[in-house]
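Write out the 3D structure for:
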Amino acid sequence: LKVQEIRGYEKVTAIPSAPAYLKGVVNLRGIIVPVIDLRVKFGLAEPKYDAFTVVVILRLAGRVIGIVVDGVSDVVRLSPGDVKAAPQLGALVDSSFLAGLAAQADRMILLLDIEKLLSSGELNVLNQAAAAVERGP
C-alpha cells in the first residue's frame, strides 16, 4: 500500500560520502527522490542495471523514496487469508522486516514491511540527502 508508482531505471545523481545502498537522487516531477538499491542493502551480489531493472516509488513517513529492484514480474492481490506468519529464521538472520509469506500457484512470496526494512536512522539519511540536493551547493 506504500507503492506510488513503478518506473524504469534511470541514471541517478550520485551523492558524495553517501552510504553504499543510497545510489543517489532523481528528480520526479519536481520532487527530489532519494533512491536506494535493495540488492546493496541486503548484501547480495553486485547489481546489474538492465532493461528489466525498475525503481519502485514509495511514500514512507511523509517522504517519497525510490527503491531499485531487479524487476517486477506482476502485481499480485492477496487476501488476508492468503498471508501466513513470517518464518522465524533464528538469531543469525534478521527477519524483523518480513511481514509474512504467501503461496500462490507454484511460488512463495515473501512480504516485506518496508518501514521496518529501513531504520529510522536510514530514513533520516535519505531525508538529509534529498534536502541537501534541494538546497544546492
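The longest helix spans residues 120-135.
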